[in-house]
Amino acid sequence: MTERAPEALTVTAPATSANLGPGFDCLAVALDLGNAVVITRRSGPLEVAVTGEGAGEVPEDASNLVCRALAAGLGSLDGLRVECRNRIPLGRGLGSSAAAVCSGLVAANALGGLRWTPDDLLARAAEIEGHADNAAACLSGGLVAVAPGPVARPIPVPEGLTFLAVVPEGHVSTEAARRALPATVPLADVTATLANAIGLTLALCEGRIDDLPPLLADRVHEPHRGAMIPGLAAVRGVVDGEGCLGATISGSGPSMLLWVRPDAAERVGAAVTKALHLLGVAALVRPSRVGAAGVRARWTGGADLRLARAVG
After folding, report:
1. pLDDT recorded at residue 179
2. Alpha-carbon distance 283 to 43, whole Å?
3. CB count, 10 Å around CB of 75?
4. Rounded CA gap, 247 and 64, in Å?
């Protein structure tokens, strides 16, 4: 008789890009790149393995961010093996920490039968992360707006819009990027940025792609982080307002997000690659569609494949 494989819980979580220009800590989008966490029950103490991005760098013990989020729901993690299969680059502004936190919380919800609602998961993720934008997009997928609470609501993604992620090799810590921000911001800069954030949200909801270029401008955080983003000026040099609608810093950087029309994506990608090469900036330019699905959990192995009741 063939021995059955142990039942495992597999949780997948997408990368995210937050802020989207003027939407500092309020807007974010999920992208079609993600991590997977596979959790199996076993005898003995917690065992953690990390492969892919961050292997040899990310802790392989209870201090791993996935495990910290798991423990927030389960308490003891003895009897578990946690394998992190990472594809989201670390420290690049693509929501790797939010993916880890949301994966751990969703896994705890499924493993512990906790019956946390989507709102509960978002609140717990925001508490661990310190802000809710990445977590909201990671949990729900798509493009989201976040309000105090935290409360997240979807924003429709217009047809005729796609993205290119520009991912430099260097890292920027969220803490360092936060320290780069001034303690006070001129009222005129705040007013202009708020107007753009509202205008951007309305334009996206109404499908007004042509109106996006000026609305992507930010005067609150991006000017102070620009020096930490290699090749930012070169990337923005390909923005023409037509095929390439704009370029925003992804989260705390150094990654950047180019807003492009689908039929111009190949041309824009080639232009960005050439511009960065001339500067000697090593970076991956990756077509990145909106990730429609947020965090997902499923049981495999010892039982027939089925979705876990993990997100409410």
Report:
1. 84
2. 43
3. 10
4. 33
Cα-based angle 203, 92, 70 (whole degrees, multiple of 5): 95
Of the CA atoms within 13 Å of residue 279, those in its CB half-sphere come to 18
Q: Among 256, 156, 87, 24, which residue's Cα sits nearest to residue 103?
A: 87
Fold of 8-155+291-307: Ribosomal Protein S5; domain 2 (3.30.230)
Given 3.40.50.2300, 3.30.1330.10, 3.30.70.890, 3.40.640.10, which CATH number is that of 162-288?
3.30.70.890
Pairing of strands 143-147, 27-41: antiparallel
pTM value? 0.92
Q: Which residues of 104-131 are buried (b: 16+ CB within 10 A; e: fewer)?
A: bbbbbbbbeeeebeeeebbbbbbebbeb
Q: Where are the domains of the chain?
A: 8-155+291-307, 162-288
> pLDDT tens, 6-45?
689 999 999 999 999 999 999 999 999 999 999 999 899 9
Helix (H) or strand (E) holding 247: strand 244-249
C-alpha angle with apex 231: 226 to 237, nearest 5 degrees? 95
- Predicted confidence (pLDDT) per residue in 173-224, tens digit: 777 778 888 899 999 999 999 999 999 999 999 999 999 999 999 999 999 9
Q: Is the pLDDT of residue 143 over 60?
A: yes
Q: Single out the residue of 81, 96, 95 nearest to residue 27, CA to CA.
A: 95
Alpha helices (H) along 207-291: 212-215, 222-225, 232-236, 265-279
